[in-house]
Write a structure and sequence with these properties.
CATH class of the largest domain: Alpha Beta
Pfam family, one: KH_dom-like
Shape: globular
InterPro entries: G_ENGA, GTP-bd, GTPase_Der, KH_dom-like, KH_dom-like_a/b, P-loop_NTPase, Small_GTP-bd
Protein name: GTPase Der
CATH topology of the largest domain: Rossmann fold
Bound molecules: guanosine-5'-diphosphate
Number of domains: 3
Family: Belongs to the TRAFAC class TrmE-Era-EngA-EngB-Septin-like GTPase superfamily. EngA (Der) GTPase family.
Subunit structure: Associates with the 50S ribosomal subunit.
Low-confidence stretches: 28-39, 205-212
Oligomer: single chain
């Protein structure tokens, strides 16, 4: 299901990113060697009153080459296009400015729900000044202090009221996937090639949601899929849409809605920072991942070319060691017929459950092979474990002290579980809990 989306707009320095970080919190934990995930965060998932939502800080989509007003205008356009609820941030310090008025007019015309924040109301005396902001014609201004974190509860209460309860049909057996990657790696070509395969039956091409053109199809084996469209396929040519941050944001939104991500890289060019960022996000979000090396027809091959390329991928995407790699060509269609079965397999692995008794046998064996670590004279004790979730498979391990289950030992346990069960393509989470 697509999350309802809140977008934050406003001129520079009013406190957008401060507010974004407050609202987003740090629900998405960051694996240390996942590069670039926290840096310049402009997209996150938050929760309020049990409702999950996505949040975008359009201020982070800065196109510095553009004149000031054009920049804000484009950010507001993105907000209007992407969001269910728009939060306009202003500041009590400068009062109502021309830029505020311009954005307010744009938002007013969009007919989207808009919540007006007056930020930097750090003390009660400043509250009387928020009345000037009624002139923006966007209803009641909400006094907020991003620095202190005050007033945001009321804003979120109001935002949640505007979330539509439109539920995207959650068709049980359907696997949703998306092709993610830099511009020009061949996402559109792969899309067309996959859908053009003889035995694939495309049932529907419909703009089902605002931000995506999804395609439903059924593979040879009868498995229904939904292919989720991503950025880069609708080349509309606004400056902001050609920026990397915009493309990253669109990719993150597609990842959110997918069960399995096909991380497309170009066999010709190798792996870039962008790829690592996106892959890191898919990993953090617990999605299934397949690494698709496209344009393999262009690569001069010798005996070990494929093996060497795979080793390079393993080095660059260390945390994705579970992701299968496939070498394809959208042009010659080499190996494309293997993709649907691979996606299906990864999706099955994401949904795999292992019984507690089997898991505990694995844990006992693990401890026998590699004794639990000690820290400051204290030894980690593992009492038992149980699988608490699928998509991704998540295991809670009950221990004497949570801090004693270091990353490296958790990693070792994960590997022992992976040796026993085919969790290929899916992240596996290990969570330590102190036994009460
Ligand atoms: P953005 O450019 O709109 O994303 O603004 P930032 O979030 O980067 O904030 C700009 C500046 O305003 C920073 O120095 C913040 O520390 C400061 N700031 C943000 N919120 C508040 C607030 O509620 N009160 C005060 N006094 N300063 C704030
Ligand atoms: P997108 O921006 O990721 O959607 O990439 P496109 O599908 O538009 O492809 C970019 C360019 O790469 C186009 O000129 C394609 O014809 C070319 N291309 C895509 N896949 C392949 C491939 O497997 N082999 C070769 N030789 N060219 C490809």
């Amino acid at each position: 299901m697509a999350n309802p989306t809140i977008a934050i707009v406003g001129r520079p320095n009013v406190g957008k990113s401060t507010i974004f970080n407050r609202i987003a919190g740090d629900r998405i934990s960051i694996v240390e060697d996942t590069p670039g995930v926290t840096r310049d965060r402009i997209y996150a998932v938050g929760e309020w009153l049990g409702r999950e939502f996505s949040i975008i800080d359009t201020g982070g989509l800065d196109v510095s080459s553009e004149p000031f007003m054009d920049n804000i205008k484009q950010q507001a356009e993105v907000a209007i296009e992407e969001a269910d609820v728009i939060v306009l941030v202003t500041s009590v310090k400068e009062g109502v400015t021309d830029a505020d008025e311009m954005v307010a007019r744009m938002l007013y015309r969009s007919n989207k729900p808009v919540i007006l924040i007056v930020n930097k109301v750090d003390n009660p005396e400043l509250r009387s000044e928020i009345y000037n902001f009624y002139s923006l014609g966007l209803g009641d201004p909400y006094p907020v202090s991003g620095s202190h974190g005050t007033g945001l509860g009321d804003v979120l209460d109001e935002a949640v009221k505007h979330f539509t309860t439109e539920i995207e049909e959650e068709d049980e057996g359907v696997i949703k996937f998306s092709l993610i990657g830099r511009p020009n790696v061949g996402k559109s070509s792969l899309t067309n090639a996959i859908l053009g395969e003889d035995r694939v039956i495309v049932s529907d091409i419909a703009g089902t949601t605002r931000d995506a053109i999804d395609t439903e199809f059924t593979s040879e084996s009868g498995q229904p899929f939904v292919m989720i469209d991503t950025a880069g396929m609708r080349k509309k040519g606004k400056v902001i849409e050609t920026t990397e941050k915009y493309s990253v944001m669109r990719a993150l939104r597609a990842i959110e809605r997918s069960d399995v991500i096909l991380m497309v890289i170009n066999g010709d060019e190798g792996i870039l920072e962008y790829d690592k960022r996106i892959a890191g996000y898919a990993h953090e979000a617990g999605k299934g991942v397949i690494i698709v090396v496209n344009k393999w027809d262009l690569v001069e091959k010798e005996t070990n070319t494929m093996k060497e390329f795979e080793e390079k991928i393993r080095r660059e995407f260390k945390y994705l060691d579970y992701a299968p790699v496939i070498f394809v060509s959208a042009k010659t269609k080499q190996r494309l017929n293997k993709l649907p079965a691979m996606i299906e397999q990864v999706s099955m692995n994401q949904n795999l459950r292992i019984s507690s008794s089997v898991l505990n046998d694995i844990l006992l064996d693990a401890v026998a092979i590699n004794p639990t670590p000690t820290d400051k004279g204290k030894r980690l004790k593992i009492f038992y474990g149980t699988q608490v979730a699928v998509k991704p498979p998540t295991f809670v391990i009950f221990v004497n002290e949570e801090e004693l289950l270091h990353f490296s030992y958790a990693r070792f346990i994960e590997n022992q579980i992976r040796k026993a069960f085919p969790f290929e393509g899916t992240p596996v989470r290990i969570i330590a809990r102190r036994r009460k």
